[in-house]
Specification:
Shape: globular
Distance between the termini: 18 Å
Strand content: 5-15%
Order of helices and strands: HHEEHEHHEHEHHEHEHEHHHHHHHHHH
Bound molecules: adenosine-5'-diphosphate, magnesium ion
Length: 460
Amino acid sequence: MPNTLNEKKLWDAVLAELQLTLSELNYQTWVANTKARNLTNSSVEVICPSPFVKDRLQKSLFSLIQNSVNKIGKGEYEIFFKVGDTQDKKETSLNIGPLFETSATNDTNAKSAGLSPKFTFDNYVMGSNNRLAFAIATAVAENPGKAYNPFFIYSGVGLGKTHLMQAIGNKILQDNPKSKVIYATGEAFMNEMIEAIQSGRGKGRYNTNQFRNKYRNADVLLIDDVQFIAGKETTQEEFFHTFNTLYLAQKQIVLTSDRPPKDFTDLEDRITSRFSSGIIADIQTPDIDTRIAILRKKRTDTHDSINDDTINFIAEKINTNIRELEGAYLQVLTYAKAIGESPEIQIAAEALGQSIKEEKRKPININQIIKTVCNYYSIRLTDIKGKRRTKNIVLPRQVAMYLIHNMTETPYMSIGEILGGRDHTTIMHGVRKVEEEVEFEGKLKQDINNIKHALLIADK
Ligand code: ADP
Ligand code: MG
């Protein structure tokens, strides 16, 4: 491990990678608020803000995190997940966010509204791709509830909807700290509602009345990724009433989505027509000039030393969306620091070339799958390929069929041959059986996850 790599740099790079791999929702929900601690040559602790997050990371993202840490740390690390304080994010050496001038109380207000203070208008670059959205957003922030209501923003992923929406909330809070701003994703809104319905039956718990009071008393309601509530009947009903209450009281509502209101097929007309009743703006993919401007802005905000040529190179290479653009930028800087070089074009090419290569996954070996399944269930290779039909052998055999089918592109017929000359219909049946059981059998699901996990580790 190069000694320039401390846990902060390591974790920034890991986060940058995860952000590219995971959906925004998953990234924000599970990963964004973690940090690394106690890095040694062979281990690192991942600090999670709650037991819930810890559990989820261990169960679902373990191998992803492990692989990323090993790659960036250039070694083999054991990962320990712990619950702890994850708040002191600000002194990151490679902070990709801006340097804030907002006061501490404002940060606290922002956090309690569910906002991240790092998303401001000041660090939002206006380009031809977002001109209208940006103009309306600033007008809304200056005149909430008056100028444009509701304000509906849509675009593909990573193009700046969340940033713009949160900038509105932050600006309103900055101008008027008492204002009740609520930011929630469509998913969080739904989960909170369900929680209120379920726990509200116990006395003194968070109940539906409290839920309603909270949302219906907002001065500004920001619902991010509202498409999530489409098709969820109770949630959209609840949302409809919240919307109406606020709208009639002339409170500002801002919504974002991955598609325009007219493209919602799974949402009642009365709701889509509410969405369209104010003003709608989209955000397009940024052109090269905007991409360069965004990276230059980032450089200014974070005082990174990286020259124009390298910035142009990254901006030219990454034309998908801004999240990936930022990820690539961070990756180049992290890579350069880790190897102790300055981030010239050559180094950038190496750093990005690497990540492109990494994406092409190594094919998983079929024999490795069979061996791992045998090990896991403590049965012999001759048994899994053999004719015996006792339960303790049939299940592992079917799990092997299922995993080979799911993790490789092997046709049923070939799977049959490899597993002791079985007919392809037997394989199809076995795969389907596991698919069905995995749906509701917790133990089997866990087993399969464990085996996959073991396979990914073995694959390294
Ligand atoms: P979305 O919600 O559309 O998926 P985000 O708002 O999360 O996208 O943006 C992804 C990343 O790109 C964020 O880190 C955000 O700060 C940054 N970003 C997006 N648009 C801009 C912009 N116009 N100027 C500066 N940074 C931007
Ligand atoms: Mg978003």
